[in-house]
Amino acid sequence: MYLAAGTPVIACNIPGFSFVKEFGVGVLIDDYKPETIYKAMVEIETNYEQYSGNCYKAARHFSFDAAVKPYAEYLAEQ
Asked: How large is the average pLDDT for residues 35-46?
């Protein structure tokens, strides 16, 4: 829902969140120190429009409607 709202994220640097870096929708962090989180916030604030725009693109990519469309088309043909 964050992506669909155009809201950049700060997430822990684990494989499950690799899309954050891949799509440029936020900043991955390796620890939860206040300094680390603050630096991530500053990075996002500095480039907010870019991160926000990337969120919308990623939301379209991960959209349920887009993912199910080929299956729905297949069922309609049967």
From this structure: 98
Q: What pTM does this model have?
A: 0.81
Q: Residue 34 to residues 6, 7, 25: CA-CA distances in angstroms?
A: 24, 20, 21
Q: Point out which residues pair with 26 in neighbouring strands.
A: 9
DSSP, residue by residue, 56-74: HHHHHHT-HHHHHHHHHHH
Please give the Cα distance from 17 to 12 (Å, whole number): 7
Task: List, in sequence order, every residue forming a beta bridge with 29; answer none if it has no partner.
Answer: 12
DSSP 8-state symbol, 1: -
Residue keyed to tokens 């822990």: 12
pLDDT recorded at residue 54: 98
Residue 70 has phi, psi (to 5 degrees) of -60, -40
Phi and psi angles of residue 12, each rounded to the nearest 5 degrees, phi first: -70, 150
